[in-house]
Amino acid sequence: MNLKRRTRFKICCISSLQEAELAVAYGASALGLVSSMPSGPGVISESLITEIAKTIPPGVASFLLTSLQDAGDIIDQHRRCGVNTIQICDRLTKGTYDDLRSALPGIGIVQVIHVLGDESIDEARDTAPHVNAILLDSGNPKLATKELGGTGRKHNWEISRRICESVSVPVYLAGGLNAQNVTGAIEQVRPFGVDICSGVRTDGRLDETKLSAFCRNIFSTHAAGI
Question: Which of 43, 70, 173, 190 is disulfide-compatible with 94, CB 3.0–4.6 A?
């Protein structure tokens, strides 16, 4: 990995046009728009996702976070929402990544891997050839009420580092990040990008003070050559 390149950052759980504008102003390379989930924060209507996606400028990715597991349903949802990237937060149980690529040419496909243990390394290696990127998070889809993101918890960053070293596609690191620990996360894991939701929010709203501190510490890693 080229350690001199800038670590991208994605601001997730965008809930309004104003939050999208603020995140873009601070240099976000991607915005996360959360559709229906079994649990977790940031869920907004598909109509609002569509409205926000239309305002996101070129060069900034619009991520649709989906809990759907049927490729056909995901294709239909994308066509309603009009984003340029699909973030699959659970595992496909019907259809394939090839089905998604065939139906949605030019749309990025990002698969979430919930880091639960060493088995996540094999899961990432098996998945990487079929997607544009992997996002490592701290959910647990094995629970009765699935956790598919937005937990605010860290996972084992040593496993995340090994995944980054094991796959050839970009890897985003999520889960429990904030201004205080993002520099250490970048130093240890060396991800392509980082992804944050609760760490830049107060009472569920995007907090400009926290966002500014988070961005400042990311940019400081670049200045230090990390």
Answer: 70
Checking if the pLDDT of 3 tops 50, the result is: no
Give the pLDDT band of residue 73 (cuts 50, 70, 90): very high
Q: Which two tokens stand for residue 149?
A: 């993101």
Model-level pTM? 0.94
CA dist., res. 58 & res. 52, Å (int): 13
According to DSSP, the residues that pair with 140 across neighbouring strands are 147
CA 3 – CA 1 distance, rounded (Å) = 6
Rg of the chain's alpha carbons, rounded to an integer? 16
Instruction: Give the tokens for residue 40.
Output: 């977790």
What is the sign of the dihedral through the CA atoms of 21, 24, 28 and 31?
positive
Question: Torsion-angle region of residue 46: left (phi > 0), alpha (psi -120 to 50) or beta?
Answer: alpha
Q: What is the pLDDT of residue 226?
A: 55
**With contact defined as beta carbons under 8 Å apart, do 174 and 138 qualify?**
yes
Both tokens of 73, joined, read: 């349903």
Structural domains of the chain ordered from first start: 8-223 (3.20.20.70)
Of 208, 213, 203, 180, give the one whose Cα is nearest residue 41. Answer: 203
Tokens read off for 169 = 């596609």
